TrEMBL record, chain A:
Gene3D superfamilies: Histidine kinase-like ATPase, C-terminal domain
A Pfam family of this chain: PspC
UniProt name for this protein: PspC domain-containing protein
Molecular function via GO: kinase activity
PANTHER family from the UniProt entry: NITRATE/NITRITE SENSOR PROTEIN NARX-RELATED (PTHR24421), OXYGEN SENSOR HISTIDINE KINASE NREB (PTHR24421:SF61)
One example of a Gene Ontology biological process annotation: phosphorelay signal transduction system
Organism of derivation: Streptomyces tabacisoli
Membrane among keywords: yes
TrEMBL record, chain B:
Protein name, UniProt field: Response regulator transcription factor
Record carries keyword DNA-binding: yes
Domain HTH luxR-type: 163-228
4-aspartylphosphate: residues carrying this PTM: D68
Keywords: DNA-binding, Phosphoprotein, Transcription, Transcription regulation
InterPro entries noted in UniProt: CheY-like_superfamily, NreC/VraR/RcsB-like_REC, Sig_transdc_resp-reg_C-effctor, Sig_transdc_resp-reg_receiver, Tscrpt_reg_LuxR_C, WalR-like
CDD domains named in the record: LuxR_C_like, REC_NarL-like
GO biological processes: phosphorelay signal transduction system; regulation of DNA-templated transcription
GO MF: DNA binding
Native source organism of the sequence: Streptomyces tabacisoli
UniProt keyword DNA-binding present: yes
TM region positions: none
Length: 436, 230
């Protein structure tokens, strides 16, 4: 994302670059960061310019407020972050149900600091400016109103961001408190203006009248507003549903329909049809039940993943169904990787020589005990069986790639004939250190 | 699972209700059971959602219900919940066999804990399905390799086993039996492997099922919590 901002013409798929306020790493409204990203300047410069302009009769503040008001908040930020630390970056996290969601890490400390600094600067500014007594009297209430408005506006930003980022749900009370504080500030400011105007004696009646007007407006517009918010949230829900459906449709279109077409074309070739159907079933299952795992085609990192991946590949290659059952999981290390390779070899053998008897059963158990982790893999077929002694000594397939490989890495391999026909390969490997 | 075929006497008869929201699948199962010919499995009713299922089951009082896990109206668990009285009937208990394409452990464990006597996947062959139906009719538990895997996962040993909850814990033997089921062994093969009788294997499996259905152990709870079930 940062590269796209500094070198926008290279590979930015969206040609009309729009100015957004940045929601990440912002101090106040994200104006400076957004501008910096848009212009390709360091954020510090932009901030300094704003501060400098602020000294010029508060022009910077006005400008900043205008930007804040008119420029929409963008997610991900077009901001160039000179230090790509994790503290202020939008990250994807895989939640417990396996779905990815965007999580914004907010640097709240910086924001608070910025607000405090701003107030101090404003105070110094006020002290230094010589104003006529009349104007000066208005200053404090105006500042109060400004602070209240800023508070409420900042909150609107947060609410907006929460909608994309799914954060801030449990901060509802805090938000309410903030809104209330904003209202109080604005109210105090407005009251202050009245007070300084000298119309204190009418204050009570004015407040009453204002209250009456507000209540009247609320009564008139209330139902309409409620309806509108309800409609809006309903519409949002529908849109989310439509998006989800589009995603499902895209997947179904891409793979399922494709496979069905292939199956229709290969209807005479039973083996091919079976292979296609199995591959598609597996793909769909992975997509339906493990959304996160389905999208990462890179190397497997855990034993369970590796076993499933190997089984899927063997299944595809040899057209024999492999039934995989995995209990527990742990990350792979060198020895376990070797075990996975041996297991794969066993699966290939089972599929090649024992596949006619039915599905090959692959069972992996990762047992965590107090001494460490033990990984057990068994591959069993219902084929004609296998006699180790009958295999000529020069045939190294099983000896080297399964037994030898396991023993070199400190594990054990055992091949045996199952009583009612078929062969079973058992591979055991210990993983020394504890896994959490 | 194939070894039950030997036990099927010629005179055996079982009345079955088929609960699945996919008509094509119901037809397929009907055909599959019919194809095995003289099996003695008679489909006396079909249902496509929870309400229908409860009505049909109450009306026909079958011996075995083939129950899909995913159903409109609350899923298989809801059917089990509303059929609790029928399951508890001492003279003619209605028994449930879960039948699903679901890969999600929580779905499967959910129906088992709800009182289903077993779980098989929809890829099961007709013969094996008929075997499983008879097995359930006899009151046995039917564990597919995948279910055995899920159960082992659910009961996975923790670092600090609670001492006073031995009752809820799987015994060494039960665990062994489950492992062999997960490895694709039939009951007869397990019996041979462990030098015990098939009846003993069956009783171990039933014990596991009972523990699964009764247990409220903290491990299971934790397992369920980790998967956002409770």
């Amino acid at each position: 994302m940062p590269e796209a901002a500094t070198a926008p013409l290279v590979e930015d798929p969206r040609p009309p670059r729009k100015l957004y306020r940045s929601s990440d790493g912002r101090w106040l409204g994200g104006v400076a960061r957004g501008l910096a990203g848009h212009l390709g300047l360091p954020v510090v410069w932009v901030r300094l310019v704003f501060v400098g302009l602020f000294m010029a009769d508060g022009l910077g503040a006005l400008l900043y407020a205008a930007f804040w008001f008119f420029v929409p908040l963008g997610i991900g930020g077009v901001g160039t972050d000179p230090r790509p630390t994790a503290s202020s970056v939008l990250t994807t996290e895989v939640s417990a149900d396996g779905r990815r969601r965007l999580v914004a890490r907010r640097p709240d400390k910086g924001q608070i600091l910025a607000l405090v600094l701003m107030v101090i600067v404003a105070m110094i500014f006020v002290q230094n400016v010589h104003l006529s007594g009349n104007t000066k009297a208005y200053l404090v209430p105006t500042v109060l109103v400004g602070a209240g408005v800023a508070l409420v506006w900042r909150q609107a930003d947060n609410a907006r961001r929460a909608r994309w980022a799914e954060v801030g749900r449990r901060r509802r009370t805090l938000n309410l408190a903030r809104a209330a504080a904003g209202v109080v500030l604005v109210g105090a400011g407005v009251t202050g203006i009245f007070v300084t105007q000298g119309s204190t004696e009418h204050l009570g009646s004015i407040l009453q009248a204002a209250l009456a007007v507000l209540v009247g407006i609320a009564l008139l517009a209330g139902p309409y507003l409620i309806r509108m918010t309800q409609d809006l949230s309903e519409e949002r829900l529908m849109r989310i549903r439509a998006q989800e459906r589009a995603e499902v449709a895209a997947h179904v279109h891409d793979s399922v329909l494709h496979t069905l077409t292939l199956i229709q074309r290969n209807a005479d070739n039973a083996g091919e049809v079976r292979r296609l159907a199995r591959a598609q079933e597996r793909d769909l299952r992975a997509w339906l039940y493990k959304p996160a795992a389905a999208e990462n085609p890179q190397e497997p990192e855990t034993v369970a993943e590796a076993v499933k991946r190997n089984a899927a590949e063997v299944e595809d290659k040899h057209g024999v169904p492999l039934e995989v059952v995995v209990v527990g999981d742990c990350p792979l290390d060198e020895a376990l990787t070797a075990q996975m390779q041996a297991a794969r070899e066993a699966m290939v053998n089972a599929a090649k020589y024992g596949g006619e008897g039915g599905a090959v059963q692959v069972y992996a158990e990762i047992e965590t005990t107090s001494e460490g982790v033990e990984v057990f893999v068994s591959v069993r077929d219902r084929g004609p069986g296998f006699d180790m002694d009958a295999v000529p000594a020069d045939r190294m397939g099983v000896r080297e790639s399964i037994i030898g490989r396991m023993e070199r890495n400190g594990g054990t391999a055992r091949l045996r004939a199952v009583p009612d026909g078929g062969t079973e390969v058992e591979l055991t490997m210990k993983r020394a250190e504890r896994t959490s | 699972m194939t070894d039950a075929a030997a036990e099927q006497g010629p005179g055996r008869h079982v009345r079955v209700v088929l609960v699945d929201d996919h008509r094509m699948f119901r037809t397929g199962v009907q055909a599959e059971i019919g194809r095995t010919g003289t099996t003695g499995v008679e489909v006396v009713g079909e249902a496509a959602d929870v309400d229908q299922a409860v009505t049909v089951i109450t009306a026909t009082r079958p011996e075995v219900v083939l129950l899909d896990v995913h159903l409109p109206g609350g899923g298989g668990v809801e059917v089990l919940r509303r059929s609790a009285a029928l399951m508890a009937d001492a003279e003619h208990p209605v028994r449930f066999l879960a039948l699903s394409v679901s890969d999600a452990a929580e779905d499967v464990i959910g129906v088992i804990r709800g009182g289903a006597r077993g779980y098989v996947t929809k890829t099961i062959t007709g013969t094996d399905l008929v075997d499983s139906i008879f097995r359930v009719q006899d009151g046995d538990a039917v564990f597919s390799p995948r279910l055995a895997g899920f159960v082992l996962d659910a009961f996975a040993s923790t670092d600090a086993p609670p001492v006073d909850e031995d009752l809820d814990r799987l015994t060494q033997r039960e665990r062994e039996v489950l492992r062999l089921i997960a490895r694709g062994y039939a009951y007869k093969e397990i019996a041979k492997q462990l030098f015990i009788s098939v009846k003993t294997v069956e009783s171990h499996v039933s014990a596991v099922l009972r523990k699964l259905q009764l247990s409220n152990r903290h491990e299971l709870t934790r397992w369920a919590t980790a998967r956002r079930l409770v």
